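To whoever picks this up:

The parser on our side crashed when reading a file containing two proteins. I've narrowed it down to the boundary between the first structure block and the second sequence. Both blocks are reproduced below exactly, byte for byte. First block:
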Amino acid sequence: MRLASNWVIGLSGEYMLNFPIYVGCMYGLFTESGEGHQRFWPAPKDPVMEEKDKLVLKQQWDKWWDRLVMLLANNYAIRSHQLGPGIGLAERHFSDIEGDLLRQCCIDSWPAFIEWWNMPAGGQMAMYYWEGFPRVNKYVEEYERMVGRKIKPFSLSVNLVYAGITAPIEPVTDYIIMPIDGPYLISKDWWLERFKQRY
């Protein structure tokens, strides 16, 4: 969390979005590896399912992902950790996930994911590192020097994901889903351009 008297930016890398990304990577639901410098984790496995089933799984996953994104976009209390994660992750049997195939894939993927997530050098520790990396305070100070005024008041939530997307997703003006890979999170120029466009 970075804050000043007139602005606040919250960066967090929670498993609420990283687990769906993990499932998508594991079952090969994203574009071909390397396209757009997209990084995959874990490497896609070769699921034993027919192509029509894989298409069904992709449709179910897309619907799950869109639902998660819009839930977070429209509910500040959840993305600021005032409410629990919900949407399929609150219970290990994933009873609230729509689609039997996706639900089973989540059940099968969860043990490996949560083991990796909780390792001393695993996903959660990696996210702690990236949450503290962007020098947002410095970028705001530089922007204010550039324009000769204080930045306009704003509040911005940024959820970090380990892989799966190649560019930030901004469903609403105060919320961004951002990959830790690529020229965004730690790019001073990206932050300055955003400040210029918005604040």
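<<boundary where parser fails>>
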Amino acid sequence: MKQTRTILLTLASLAIFFLSANGCKTPPKEEVKPKQETIIEEVVESPEVIEFIKAKEGFLNENLFQVAISSVLTESEARKSEANAIAEQKALNLLKTYSPPNLSEKGRKELREISKEGKLVDKNISQSGRYFFLYQIQKKDLKRLVTTQLE
């Protein structure tokens, strides 16, 4: 009987010890990170620049395709020349996304030619040394031609 009492007392002591040790655990310390201050520099853009930035690229309708580009060159003719070269390449890349995936060499050549048929629209918009342009390709049934009629 005494032995049973000793075993029960020992078990009760161990249970109390484990329960109290478990309850006294301190929560793990969270790393305190220094607060970083975020500085947001607000750039106020003119309505014309906002209109340009939000300009739709791709097919505006069945006959008109458009991309938006900008240049930082200061000399007018160099700026237009650079914008035109960038626009042709950008138009070609975007037109490829609309064309069938497995174009023949003839189809790729025709797509390159289409991308060079555009005209640079200079709305004389600039801000912070950037000059903005639109490049538009206008051709009857252009969307159908690019999406379904190229080989």
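After patching the parser it read the second block fine. The first helix runs from residue 2 to 23. The first strand starts at residue 58 and ends at 61.
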